[in-house]
Amino acid sequence: MLDIQKIRAEFPILSQKVNGKPLVYFDNGATSQKPQIVIDAEVKYYQEINANIHRGVHTLSQLATDAYEISRGKVQQHINAKFAHEVLFTSGTTHGINLVTNGFASILKPGDEVIVSSLEHHSNIVPWQMLCEKTGATLKVIPMNEDGELIMEAFDALLSEKTKVVTVNHISNALGIINPIKYIIDKAHAVGAAVLIDGAQAVPHLKPNVQELDCDFYAFSGHKMCGPTGTGILYGKEAWLNKLPPYQGGGEMIKEVTFEKTTYADLPHKFEAGTPNIAGGIVLGTAIDYLNSVGFENIQQYENELLEYATKRLLEIEGLKIYGTGKNKASVVSFNIDGIHPYDIGSIIDKLGIAVRTGHHCAQPIMNFFCIPGTIRASFSFYNTKEEIDTMVEAVKKAKTMLS
Ligand code: PMP
């Protein structure tokens, strides 16, 4: 059992008022709030060990390097990667995905196929489209049903020896649907395709086990899991990371440079050109420690309660429709009210201190599927409460009355 009041006290922003009302923060899918321990770790880095890493013999540089590499080790353990050098620091999920699509530009040929899903965030669509334009490969899309679930029979039918890459998100940001990624990974491997999982929305709720999943790449962002913005991880299997060319050229990623030829550093440095977000990388480790101290089993159990409660309470409102009614869901409720633009509801409830997301959630194909301009998305974290859900439901009712 989680002591929610104690947890809430660890997040200073949660005791703020917004527009004169206590903040109700339900935009966790966009970014999570940060506990004091994470904020303190960022300050401590700059106060005590700030220095550039991997290049100095002086003490501070050693301390910063050690802290950065310890953090890489924490991530390795957290996701159960076989080697620490399979864990690349990035600026976020988007960066990780682009690193991979850039690498595949030298592998794909005209006639090859890339499969994405209809539930993807734009950051897991656009880089693959750009890759297909560059290489002459074809983009195929796994369709979804009215419940927002991917149709696995259609996926099976898309697979062939032409399939070179399959990519899906672990959890959909717009609807909260949890995808059957183990099935997808195994089926894709059976035709020899590589698989990238976009884990951006999964890592705040669960601990991915990349060896058990057997995915080739797993990308995520630190800022959605209580860590700093501008941090992220790309996990890649050693063999794939050795095969792909570097993403960016620069300092740190080389073995030897002459004007005739440059040789590249070993993993992970080959993919980490330039001075990274050192503080962020170190503090991401602190955020992971923090989440593990709360415990992912506790987080999941409590967030499921919030999801069930919010779904039940919201459905009391006449004319309210929830999108993403599939069985397997994370704590996200995406909804609309008959005849009212989501933006109008979002703006009114913001005046009452409630932060939700309105719009297409960077997933326009999903909105096109449902023929809507967008939704109101309430995404819950383990520091939210049922009382906050009650506050939101009352606010939505009020907004509905005002706008009808
Ligand atoms: N994929 C999904 C499923 C997401 O929800 C997000 C962020 N909304 C991203 C990718 C992109 O993450 P970032 O902006 O941190 O790179």
UniProtKB/TrEMBL annotation:
EC number, as in UniProt: 2.8.1.7
Key words, A-Z: Lyase, Pyridoxal phosphate, Transferase
Occurrences of domain Aminotransferase class V (ranges): 24-391
Reaction it catalyzes: (sulfur carrier)-H + L-cysteine = (sulfur carrier)-SH + L-alanine
SUPFAM superfamilies per record: PLP-dependent transferases
Cofactor needs: pyridoxal 5'-phosphate
Coiled coil: none
Keyword Lyase: yes
InterPro entries: Aminotrans_V_dom, Aminotrans_V_PyrdxlP_BS, Cys_dSase_SufS, PyrdxlP-dep_Trfase, PyrdxlP-dep_Trfase_major, PyrdxlP-dep_Trfase_small
Gene Ontology terms: biological process: cysteine metabolic process
Enzyme class: transferase
One Pfam entry name: Aminotran_5
Molecular-function GO term, any one: pyridoxal phosphate binding
PANTHER family in the cross-refs: CYSTEINE DESULFURASE (PTHR43586), CYSTEINE DESULFURASE 1, CHLOROPLASTIC (PTHR43586:SF8)
Assigned protein family: Belongs to the class-V pyridoxal-phosphate-dependent aminotransferase family. Csd subfamily.
Functional note: Catalyzes the removal of elemental sulfur and selenium atoms from L-cysteine, L-cystine, L-selenocysteine, and L-selenocystine to produce L-alanine.
NCBIfam families in the record: sufS
Protein name: Cysteine desulfurase
